[in-house]
Amino acid sequence: MTKSNTLSEIRKSIALHGVPKSTLKQDRRVVITSVGTERVTGQAERRFLEWREENGLALDGPYLRVEVVEFLQDYAELHEQSNLDATRIALGRLLSMKLSPVASLIETVRQGRATRWDEVTAIAARQREHNALSTLIANDAGLRAIELFALRRADEQTPSAHCNWPATMFLGRHDVVVMIVTGKGGLRRPIALARCLAEELEKRRRPEPVIVVDRGVHYESYYDIAGGQAFSQSFSDASQRALGASTGAHGLRHAYAQRRVRELMALGYEFMAAIQLVSRELGHFRPIFAYYQPR
């Protein structure tokens, strides 16, 4: 999608309230025919634009498919499936895109459908070394593909001071090294990485940081590992070879969440209390409870 029209202009152009059905049958465009549908579409528009602003993307486009998918993946980590599906359908209508379903993190964890460890290792075995290590790190620490570029030692950076980092973060994890990663909106958060992986990562420490460019954005990278779009493509290709299908590298965050929720529940946490703490570990500070309706 490369239109320069603002989303509001696009929405207004396809809102055809009160138009006779006979006329609509001759109009092959995707159109909005009810006030309720336009309201839902407007809500999806607002959420997508808020996300674009948080991520430094132009509000007036172009609106690329890869950006829409990334937004939905982030949105899936805080919202239940029905809300996520409505937002996906509304954005697809607005942008004339056919968007594949995305699984809600909450539903994935609750149903136990996240990527399993044997699947992770099968995928990593079909990747080159720097991609395989990134797969294992993303799975172990719950990282986004782009965050792999931003790993730093805890003696080099500190977490963002404006956030309240719970003392219970990483409760139940043992023999880990705490590192710092810069994520969405420049948020610096602590992550816990298994010591064996941290040691492998240090072996790939660069003598000097280098600037890597991913989809036009510059990142300072201290480690010679894969990240960003190239890593995501490597993961998907390896997953197709290993499993015959791929849910994408973002599924590693769901696997992390599922594992951590189980660990916390074993320590006595209720499901949603565990989800809430894990959301902090993933770098989210909006309240999940506002979006989740227990069944």
Describe this structure in words.
The structure is a single chain. The chain has helices at 7-14, 21-26, 35-54, 65-75, 81-95, 105-111, 117-124, 129-141, 195-203, 228-243, 251-266, 271-281; strands at residues 151-153, 176-182, 188-194, 205-214, 217-223. The chain is globular. Helix 6 crosses helix 11. It is 47% helix and 12% strand. It has 295 residues and is mainly alpha-helical. It is built from twelve helices and five strands. The two termini are 37 Å apart. Strands 1-2-3 form a three-stranded antiparallel β-sheet. It has a two-stranded antiparallel sheet with strand order 4-5. Residues 289-295 have low confidence and may be disordered. The longest helix has 20 residues, at 35-54. The chain has two domains: 7-102, no CATH class; 110-287, hpI Integrase, Chain A (Orthogonal Bundle). This is Site-specific integrase. GO terms for molecular function: DNA binding. One of its GO terms (biological process) is DNA integration. Keywords: DNA recombination. InterPro entries: DNA_brk_join_enz, Integrase-like_cat_sf.
